[in-house]
Each structure stands twice: as C-alpha cells, then as structure tokens.
Amino acid sequence: MQTTFPRLMLQHAAERPQAPALREKEYGIWQTLTWGALALIVRELAAGFATAGVRRGQHVVVVGSNRPRLSACMLAAQALGAVPIPLYQDAVAAEFVFPINNAEVAFAVVEDQEQVDKLLELREQCPGLARIWYDDPRGLRNYSEAGLASLDALIKAGRDHERQHPGYFDAQVAEADPHDVAAMFFTSGTTGNPKGVVHTHFTLLDRANAGKAFDKLTEREDVLAYLPPAWIGQNIFSYAQWLACGYVVNCPESASTVTIDLKEIGPTYYFAPPRIFEGLLTTVMIRMEDAGRVKKWLFDHFMALARRVGPALMDGKPVSAFDGLHYRLGDLCIYGPLRNTLGFSRVRVAYTAGEAIGPDLFTFYRSIGINLKQLYGSTETAVFVCLQPDNEARADTVGVPIDGVEIKVADGGEILVKSPGLLKEYYKNAAATAEVLDASGWYHTGDAGFIDAGGHLKIIDRAKDVGRIVGGANDGAMFAPKYVENKLKFFPYVKEAVAFGDRREKVCAFVNIDMEAVGNWAEKRNLPYGGYTDLAQKPEVYELVRDCVEKVNADLAADQMLAGSQISRFLVLHKELDADDGELTRTRKVRRGFIAERYQVLVDALYGGKVSQYIETQVRFEDGRAGMVAADLKIVDAKTYPGMRRAA
Amino acid sequence: MSRQFGEVILEVANISLSFGGVRALTDISFNVREHEIRAIIGPNGAGKSSMLNCINGVYQPQQGTIAFRGKTFRHMNSRQVAEMGVARTFQSLALFKGMSVIDNIMTGRNLKMKCNLFQQALHWGPSRREESEQRQFVEHIIDFLEIQPYRKTPVGKMPYGLQKRVDLGRALAMEPKVLLLDEPMAGMNVEEKQDMSRFILDVNDEFGTTIVLIEHDMSVVMDISDRVVVLDYGKKIGDGTPDEVRSNPDVISAYLGTTH
To answer: What DSSP character marks residue A333?
Structure first.
C-alpha cells in the first residue's frame, strides 16, 4: 500500500467531491465540509505555507482541539513534505519549550487566543519560532507581534501563490514517498523529557488499514473527535483512519458540549479511554438516584437481567427463549433509551484503551448492547497491536494480535512486538531508540504480561514497575503497583491511587477520592463538608475507602501471583493529583516516582507506623498562579487476608 | 495597548432628580466618549442606579439634559432610548425564567423584527424567514458568550452567574451602540467576576460598544474602566481615570471614612 495522507485526501476529493469529510458544530448547526471543499482549503493553506517558507522536512507545530481547519493544516504541511507535530492543547506554556526547541520548530498553527498567548510567552525561550497562525481571531484584533497572523491571511496569501504557480501543489504531493516522515508525536513519558516519536505515512496508514480490515470499517462511519489530537489514539481515529476509510469526522462545538454533540451525531465508531466511559456511567447513576420509584424499579429489574443475559447475547452465545424475549422487552423500555441518552444508539464498534477498565464498567456497556471492546497499542506502535474480536471481548485481556503483528514474551515477562507500524525512531535520540528497538526489529513495549490460553494478550503492569516485596511476611512476593492501583480505581469512590511496596516489607497506598461520587455519597448521608481537603479527611470517608481497600485485598488474596501485594496501610490525599503539578502525565497516568519524592514525608509516615502526618503542598492553578494546600492527614491500617499461594 | 476613543456619545448635564423630598441626584454632569468603558461607582444609596435609570428613560429628571450624539432630550421613554441604540442589563435579573436561553436572547431582537404580531403568530412566509435570520444572530451571541451547552435550558434552572451572562446576551442582541450595565458582577464569585470582566472587555473590543457600568466591586471597576465617575449622596465627588480617582481624597473618605 503505497500512498500518503495528502494523496488519499485528493483521491476522496476526486471520487466523492460532494461527500462530507468533516463536520463542525457552529452557531448551533452542524456545518459540513465536503472532500472537495477540504481539498481546496488544503491546497490554499499549503501554498500559504510555501510562501511563508515552510519546506520539506521542516516541522510545524499544531496546537488546539479538533477543528476542521487544523486538520487541513496538518494535511497542508504533509503535502509540502513538512512534518506536523500536534501538541497537547491543555499543556501549560513551559511544556511546549522542549518539543519546540528539540524539533527546531519555526512554524506554529494554533486554535485561539489562549494558545497564541502561551506561544508568545515562550518567544524568548524559543527564539526559532518565527511564525504563528491562529484559527479563531477572537480577542486577537489588537495583537501586533511580529510573525503573528490569522489562518485567513495565510489562505489569502496561498491563493495568490496558487495563481502564480498553478502546478506547485500537485508537484509537491507527487514528490512525497510513503516512507517519508508524516508526523511526530511527543510522548508524555512518566520520566524525563518527552520523546518525539517519528512515524511515516506508511507506518500510520498500515496500522490504520489493519484496524479498518479487522472491524470492516467503511466510508459510512461517523466519528466524534473530542480527545486531544496530540494523543495518537485520537489521531489514528480522526486522521489516519479518517483518510484511510473516508468516513466523516465530527468536531464538537466546545469541550463542554461533548455529551450533547455525542447524542446529536450518534457515532458508529467510537473510541475513549476508560475514564470517559466511567464518567458517562456516573452521570447515569446519579440521575437514576433521583428518578421516580417506578422508573427506578424498572431500571434495577432490567439491569439485573442485562448483567445476566446481555454479555452472552453480545458474544453471540445462545440464551433461553424466555430470557431472550425478556431482554427484548428490556431493550424497548430501558437499554434502547439509555443507549440513546448516552449517544450510543448507532455505535457499531466502540473501543477503550490507554488504561485498564473495571470489569463492572466493561460489562455494563456490553450488557446494554454496546459493542465495547479493548485494544492494545501505544504511540510507538501506531496504536493497533492487539484488538478484541467482536465475540471475544473480555475485561481482563486486551485482545489478539492483528494482521501483520508478531508478539513474543521475553524472559523477564516483557512483551515484545514486531509490526509494520512501529516507529521509525525517537527524534534526535538514538540512544532511546536503540533501547526500545533491537537489532532484529522487535519493539520492547515495557509492559509485562502473558498470552492466555485463548490467545489473548493480558497485561499486568509496566515491566520496570513490577517489583518484589523484601522482608516481612511476604518476603519475595511479586509486587505489581499498577495492578493494585487499578483494582482500587475500579471503585467509583476512588479517583486515583498510588501503591508503594517495591523492596519494602509491605504495600502501602495513597488514595485520591472522586469528588463527584464521594460528594454525592456524603450528601445522601447529610455529611457536611467544606471542600475537597475537608471531605477527604472525614472519618466516614476513611471508612468508605477502607472498605474498598479491604475488598481489593480479598480479591488479591485469591490471586496466586499477587497475593503478597495486599495493601496493609493507606492514607487519603488532601489534594487531587494533577497534571499541572507534574503528578500525572497529560494522559492521566500517575508518575509514581515523582509522587514518592514529592510526598516523601507521607511515604515515611506510612512505613514509620505514624497515625497522622502534617503536610503542606504547593499547587499550581490553571492560570499559572501557585497556592498552598495544607492538611493533617490520618493514616490507617487495612485488613489483609492470608494468601492462597501455599494452599494451591 | 493604547486605547483610542471617539467623540462624546453621551453627555449628561446638570441632572437633578428627586422623589418627593428625597434628592436622589443633585446637579450631576459627565460625559461618555465612544468606545470607552465608563464606570459609575459610589457607596450604597449614592444614586448610581437612579443615574442609570435617567439615562435609560425610566426616570424623568426634574432638571438637566441628556444628549445622545449631540441631540438633546428632556423627556424620553424607554422604547425611544432603546431605538436610539442604548441597551441595558438589570441588577436584579429580569429574565423570563421559564423560557430557554435562545428565546430569552431572541426577545432582545424584537426591535429588529419587521413582521407584525399577526404574522409572527402565524409563523409563515416572511416571518419564518425573518426568525431564522434573527436566530443566526442570536447564535453568534451564544457563541460569543460561551453558553452553547445551555442553548435550550430554561433560564431559571441555570446558575446565577450564567443567568447574568444571558442577561448580557439579551442586551447585546439589540446591537447597541451604548450598553448600560447595572452591577454586572453583583453576587458573583471570583471566577465568575473574572469571566464577566473578560466578556465586558471583549464586547468593548470586538463590537466597539461603548459601555457604562455601575459597580460595587472597586477592584473590578479599577481594572477594566477607562474613566470613573464617583457619586456620594447624589452628588458627584470625583471623575477621572482609575488612578486619579483612587488618589482623590474625597473618594477615599467616602469609601473608607475619615478620621476626625
């Protein structure tokens, strides 16, 4: 398959010029951009870039949410052989410094004033950044900084250039090779500086097509693009596969209207990390709590049925005639309307990835007739490595290797992958590239796991994070922090958890409560509280969390390998872990090492047997200001259970 | 960023207003220039809202004149004022609580509609076309004020800070030349105040609307206004840029009291 993104776009424009390519909700109406119109804009933008001096191999930063014109800019850059680098739009300005300087970026296309302000702030630190174009001119009327202009101005310059050099665009597109670099994604990384993952047209399109074939995607799909375009997951679903399949990508009006837009569009192909599915379920449950008695009874009755019968129906297994009929009735009364409310009426294929998903959560969606599945992949593998087939979706595996992928488990338990979609390299970082890509072409994922009897891949944790308990009753037992943390996070009351235990005699944990769920819980019990810190330290909340911890321990005790990872002491943190404070990555993964360092006193207190510890923490607000949060944190013990290890 | 102002758009001269024996305003004069943000401040009962109501045509002052773009008026009703391009918001929200955000803002377009009541009731032909034109304008305002998620929500169900935004939206729907804001930040938390300040500056910047605002919160006023009039017990005690007003001894004593 020898093509490039711009060529695919031109192909769609030639074959189906009137078919919709992108939709964006603006002024209350879904405005459609056809493939024909898109090709025209891309042509003009590319010519505009050319007049501004964008050349083959140069980098263009793109910062903003999913907007049709930003996608067009990526295509335009690629048409010239330049390399677009999408960056996270919610990152603080300082986080842009490394990528911009590392990739010697001179050009940036951004969404609005917010992003313009961030980049202007960096002018001294990033002297190479010469030109900035913005999509939305609002609030920018009085800016007179050198090199700053609107996309409209760029398009206008492009039009003039087109008139003078009519063949320029097509010649540039024809010159490209599929093995040229197509895009670069900076991985957030839980340690050190981010790394630029370099992908070619070929690697991205190969995986996009493998996914397309696996799920039989067509040009008739509708996709809602609402996650950061800098995340490769969103990029694959709303860019690479968009061009590979030619389906319609819909851009929501704003971040706050996503649920409304989701319902209006009714996507057929949907992708979200587990936290989105969790958020949706939480809103449903909260609304059901307030529903009338009849509705509530109906909901409880049919959900019980769904839990029993739904997953089997989804997997295509036979159920009794009565159950089948009963489920059909439930579909009429509850499941159908519920799917509609969630915006999932038309979903044919839905994926979740990025984090482990709780079994209850996973089953909930499948039981009401939504074909939710899991996949495995990363930025380095252009996402698609393993996918779950329609009838084999399970909560604890991530699917089977798909077309083109080879998987091997190394001696230490690390998963190795060989696939045509592997990264070309880490940008200007040969050492890091050599670390993950060995001479025989295997990519070292850094994930520990194994292939189960059914041929499904099962992931336990990051390979480097899997540790050993040293000393104490469980000496030498395996410790998988993420596995433990995920089990805790499956409870709606727990937002984040951080487990410690490697080279220690027992496992201890920090817990972050979920403000919405615990707040609601407290309200139902007439438990007054004044803000997050106060609520987190309520004795009743500690009891609630202890209950969750002990359930996790009981569950772990039943596991042969991980019985030693039970949590013996824990505390509830006084502030939410936040990416702005560096505690989470932008994709919301906990940075365990950083947290252990930052909250050293708390870790010491946990292992030192103290019953409380005073702590003061600096927090950074979204506008860049800093403040202090202080609290006296209680530390409590949790019951652990004897392991089944020896008995088995 | 240096700001440029046009000519005097509103000239208030020697206004006096009394209710029976109570003198609400005594001999007040000031002017407002095109494109500026002009604040009227003062302690409780200083006569701020009375002043706004005089400009707005709700009250008829016993003495003095108000000139709009050089044309002097003595008696005017609210409708005439509105037709001249002066819109206002209210301190105690005067929205239609049961109606959606769209419908509330749409009422602000009333003066722009040409169809009569009968045609509108039938909702056919020209009135239908007109409504969709007006709706387009309303959508621009909704986009501008970032209230898209609430488009169809009944206003009464929305948080107070957002209701204030809808109130501003309805005033903007008139495409006013002068916008009178009666305590736009009253009862808001810090974040809502920051948002509202941003919107006021944006309105001034994007649409070039001249803004006259009454406000209690000194810090907000000093941050966003170009010039400030200070009233106390119905009299003008200060007038000038925020810095001038801040250092005016009369203003300091009116706000903080004096030691004797």
So the answer is: I
**CATH of the domain spanning A274-456, picked from 3.40.50.300, 3.90.1150.10, 3.40.50.12780, 3.40.50.1820:** 3.40.50.12780
- DSSP β-bridge partners for residue B236: B231
Q: Which residues from A are below 8 Å from B151, CB to CB?
A: 28
Cα A434 to chain centroid distance, Å, stands at 26
**CATH architecture, domain A465-637:** 2-Layer Sandwich (3.30)
Return the closest-CA partner of residue A221 out of A257, A201, A250: A250
Say which CATH architecture domain B1-85+176-260 belongs to.
3-Layer(aba) Sandwich (3.40)
Q: How far is A256 from chain B (nearest CA, A)?
A: 6
Helices (H), A196-316: 201-214, 232-235, 241-245, 258-265, 274-289, 293-314
What was the pLDDT predicted at A190? 57
**Portion 223-262 of A in contact with B at CB < 8 A:** 253-254, 256-257, 260
* B202 touches A: beta carbon within 8 Å: yes
Contact assignment for A254 to B205 by CB distance below 8 Å: no
| Percent of chain A whose pLDDT exceeds 70 | 98
pTM: 0.83
Q: What pLDDT digit, counting tens, does each position of A535-583 carry?
A: 999 999 999 999 999 999 998 888 777 888 899 999 999 999 988 888 8
Contact of B62 with B17, CB cutoff 8 Å = yes
Interface test mutation site (partner B, options A25, A253, A258, A623, max chain B beta carbons within 10 A): A253
Pick from B143, B149, B206: CB nearest A260: B149
**Phi, psi (5° rounding) for residue B64?**
95, 170
Contact residues on chain A for B136, CB-CB shorter than 8 A:
27
ipTM (interface pTM):
0.76
**Tokens (6 digits) for A97:** 């410094």
Are the C-beta atoms of B225 and B213 separated by less than 8 Å?
yes
